[in-house]
């Protein structure tokens, strides 16, 4: 006997693929994970991967869910993936070669072309942008040859539905899409050779089709399963964390320090790497420092951090005044390529040294939120935390003291959970009442985004 319909979120990263199934009340029903081979690096600055590897991984996790003992039935599927990863495909979705990954930096010449015509604050600037990658991939394209520009999540959604050529507000941002006016700017279209088609762009979570019959049979899902437009991995993680109102913020304490806050208007500062993802009627404003967990791991193991943290008094400042960086250079909250780490004086007491590092990263976090506020974002009302540092209660207390507001670990930290929420709110089966909870992205009416 089949269970009640569930919503599935798929998170496709660089090293693995995770799928989560939730019910209407957002309870976790089932999960699956597989690893992915690392991207190829054929030359310095070149980072690429075969799209076939993504589809193999997505099929594996979805097949696992489709064959779950609980008899899971999928109502809708939403895919998030790495921002800025792009491929060029034939009109039927067949890749014309490997995809250029989010951190591929080979498109320097193309970035220079874009810089001559793009607005100063456009996220499409820079050699790692989606638009720079697209222009690079067009180098070897025969004149007039039809081709589709597709992001990682776009292509997987096309494999599921058989409908290629659809993207979402969030993935399309670094390709030059104007998420305020909801259109492709003329200057973007003028850069492309004849025959190259930009994707149609819709709101994340919008239903774009149903599972192709052959795919549905292969996965063990009904042909009524909806496929909805996806989002980027970091945006899905923010949705999973539980952001819902202006002033809600999420800090990722991973290898680097990433700050995001919900705002009623978009904020952009290309010099500081600050840009905004549209989420319904709100905007997710973000910035990223080079500081973070990578600095801690240069000096301590995870076990040492846990052991030494237990002996720190979080309410008694060390007074060390560090600016922890793993190497020279900072991007946010200050843009200074020559910025040097400040890790002196170095006390003999390793516990005190660790406290100084934790306080230094917390000080950068505090300065980062104030910098976003200076740019026009709201002051944070609460900060949810994701990443490895979220489990350290002493660090949480230090951050709470320095920020002066409530800080807590997010209950859900999986990007796939955020994608499943998108599938729930806009991809529910016809004839079934929509969930009564507020939309996950703060929109006044989720149906306006279809």
Would you give an account of this structure?
- The chain is of the alpha/beta class and 450 residues long.
- The protein is built from 13 helices and 19 strands.
- It folds into 2 domains: 5-235 and 414-449, ATPase, nucleotide binding domain (Nucleotidyltransferase, domain 5, 2-Layer Sandwich); 245-409, Nucleotidyltransferase, domain 5 (2-Layer Sandwich), CATH 3.30.420.
- Helix content is 29%, strand content 22%.
- A 6-stranded mixed beta sheet has the order 3-2-1-5-13-12. A 6-stranded mixed beta sheet has the order 16-17-15-14-18-19, sandwiched between helices.
- The two termini are 33 Å apart.
- The relative contact order is 0.14.
- Mean pLDDT is 91; it is low at 427-450.
- Number-wise, the strands total 19
What CATH calls the topology of the largest domain is Nucleotidyltransferase, domain 5
How would you write the strand order of the largest sheet? 3-2-1-5-13-12
What is the total number of structural domains? 2
- For this structure, what is the CATH class of the largest domain? Alpha Beta
Radius of gyration: 22 Å
From the 3D coordinates, which CATH architecture of the largest domain would you assign? 2-Layer Sandwich
Count of runs of 4 or more consecutive helical residues = 13
Largest β sheet strand count, sense and barrel closure? 6 strands, mixed
Distance between the termini: 33 Å
Helicity level, as a percent range? 25-40%
- Using the alpha-carbon principal axes, give the shape: globular
- The average pLDDT is 91
Give the structural class.
alpha/beta
Strand portion, in percent? 15-25%
């Amino acid at each position: 006997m089949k269970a009640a319909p569930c919503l599935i979120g798929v998170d496709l990263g660089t090293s693995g693929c995770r799928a989560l199934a939730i019910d209407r009340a957002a309870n976790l029903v089932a999960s699956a994970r597989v690893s992915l081979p690392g991207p190829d690096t054929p030359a310095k600055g070149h980072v690429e991967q075969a799209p076939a590897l993504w589809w193999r991984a997505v099929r594996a996790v979805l097949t696992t869910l489709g064959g779950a003992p609980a008899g899971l039935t999928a109502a809708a599927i939403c895919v998030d993936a790495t921002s800025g990863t792009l491929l060029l495909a034939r009109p039927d979705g067949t890749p014309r070669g490997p995809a250029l990954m989010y951190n591929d930096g080979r498109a320097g010449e193309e970035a220079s072309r874009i810089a001559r015509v793009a607005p100063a604050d456009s996220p499409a600037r820079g050699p790692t942008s989606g638009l720079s990658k697209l222009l690079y991939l067009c180098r070897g394209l025969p004149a007039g040859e039809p081709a589709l520009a597709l992001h990682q999540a776009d292509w997987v959604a096309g494999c599921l539905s058989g409908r290629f050529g659809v993207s979402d507000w969030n993935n399309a941002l670094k390709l030059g899409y104007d998420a305020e006016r909801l259109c492709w700017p003329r200057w973007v279209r003028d850069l492309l050779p004849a025959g190259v088609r930009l994707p149609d762009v819709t709101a994340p979570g919008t239903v774009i089709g149903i599972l192709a019959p052959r795919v549905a049979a292969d996965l063990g899902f009904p042909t009524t399963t909806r496929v909805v437009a996806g989002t980027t991995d970091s945006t899905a993680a923010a949705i999973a964390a539980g952001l819902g109102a202006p002033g809600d913020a999420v800090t990722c304490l991973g290898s680097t320090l990433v700050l995001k806050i919900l705002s009623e208007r978009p904020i952009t500062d290309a010099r500081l790497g600050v840009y905004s993802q549209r989420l319904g009627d709100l905007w997710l404003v973000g910035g990223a420092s080079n500081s973070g967990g990578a600095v801690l791991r240069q000096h301590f193991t995870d076990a040492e951090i846990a052991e030494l943290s237990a002996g720190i008094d979080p309410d008694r400042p060390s007074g060390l005044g560090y600016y922890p960086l793993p190497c020279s250079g900072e991007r946010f909250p200050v843009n200074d390529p020559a910025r040097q780490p400040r890790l002196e004086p170095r006390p003999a007491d390793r516990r005190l040294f660790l406290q100084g590092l934790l306080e230094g990263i917390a000080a950068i976090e505090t300065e980062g939120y104030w910098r976003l506020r200076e740019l026009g974002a709201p002051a944070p009302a609460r900060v949810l935390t994701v990443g490895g540092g979220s489990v350290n209660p002493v660090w949480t207390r230090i951050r709470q003291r320095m920020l002066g507001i409530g800080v807590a670990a997010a209950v859900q930290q999986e990007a796939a959970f955020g994608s499943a929420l998108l599938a729930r709110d806009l991809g529910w089966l016809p004839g079934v009442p929509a969930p009564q909870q507020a939309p996950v992205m703060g929109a006044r009416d989720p149906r306006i985004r279809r």
